[in-house]
Amino acid sequence: MSEKEEETPQRILVIDDHVLFRDGLVSLFRSTPDFQVVDQAGSVKEGIEKAFHHRPDIILMDFSLPDGTGLDATRAILDELPDCKIIFLTVFETDESLLTAIRLGAKGYMLKNVSSSSLIASLRALAQGEIAMSRKMMSRVLEFSRSMPVPPTNDRLNKLSPRELDILYELQDGASNMEIAQRLYLSENTVKHHIHSILEKLGVENRRQAGMIAKQLGVKKGKSTTVKK
Questions:
Q1: 154-217 adopts what CATH topology?
Q2: Dihedrals φ, ψ of 37, to 5°?
Q3: Among 19, 32, 41, 87, which is disulfide-ready with 47 (CB 3.0 to 4.6 Å)?
Q4: Structure confidence at residue 103 (pLDDT)
């Protein structure tokens, strides 16, 4: 009995809107006895529903889906299934998507051009507490972490005016000066002036770093912020 328990395969849910790709993964795992695909989904909504129903050990998920992103699904699934291991299998290679996925609790991030043997090896390593990620991806995470400024304290954030906090909030999503001006009913020159002031007060070099800090500290429109714990 104990031997059978040891051989119990890891149960996998595949979430991807490309049927051919999903079928390829199913075929791959069919010949791998320590893994079993329990179901497939092609959207965020369907993926969340099937995750709650099957409660899989592992979810392989694309970043871009018809009704949202894999990040949306990750938030919902991990709230209900905190022990589920979510691995992004995608064509998106941007630093922002990679880092956001890891921050949300994903246990891996791999590109779709990964070899079958590397994918299987990475999934097996998950059981040993490792992250399913190529060395190249891991080095990018480390490089980005080193380049990130030290988050400002609340004392420094308190130097921002309510209007500057409004603008800092918009920078989280990479809004342009024109977009911010339209949303806040300001001129572009006024927005530009405020952003210059924000960068100086936070001690950062560019608006992207300011936006990352806003995400880290949970900046709200025109309100004081607190550091997320």
A1: Arc Repressor Mutant, subunit A (1.10.10)
A2: -80, 115
A3: 41
A4: 81
pLDDT tens digit sequence for 200-223: 888 888 888 888 888 877 787 654
What is the C-alpha separation between 136 and 15, in angstroms, rounded? 24
In CATH terms, the fold of domain 2-146 is: Rossmann fold (3.40.50)
Q: Where are the domains of the chain?
A: 2-146, 154-217
Q: Which of 82, 95, 13 is nearest to 54 (CA)?
A: 13
What average pLDDT is seen over the chain?
Answer: 84
Burial of 183 (0-12, 13-18, 19+ CB in 10 A): middle
Bridge partner list, 105: none
Q: Which amino acid is at 170?
A: E
Q: Distance between CA 174 and CA 179 in Å, rounded?
A: 10
Length of the chain: 229
Residue tagged 């070899």 (tokens): 115
Which residue type occupies 86? I
Name the pTM for this structure. Answer: 0.61
Q: Is the pLDDT of residue 229 over 70?
A: no
Helical H runs in 7-152? 19-30, 44-54, 70-80, 95-104, 116-126, 135-147
DSSP secondary-structure letter at 148?
Answer: S
Give the model confidence (pLDDT) of 29-56 as tens digits: 998 999 999 999 999 999 999 999 999 9
Half-sphere exposure of 95 (CA within 13 A, CB side): 12
13 touches 86 (CB < 8 A): no
| Amino acid type, 63 | F
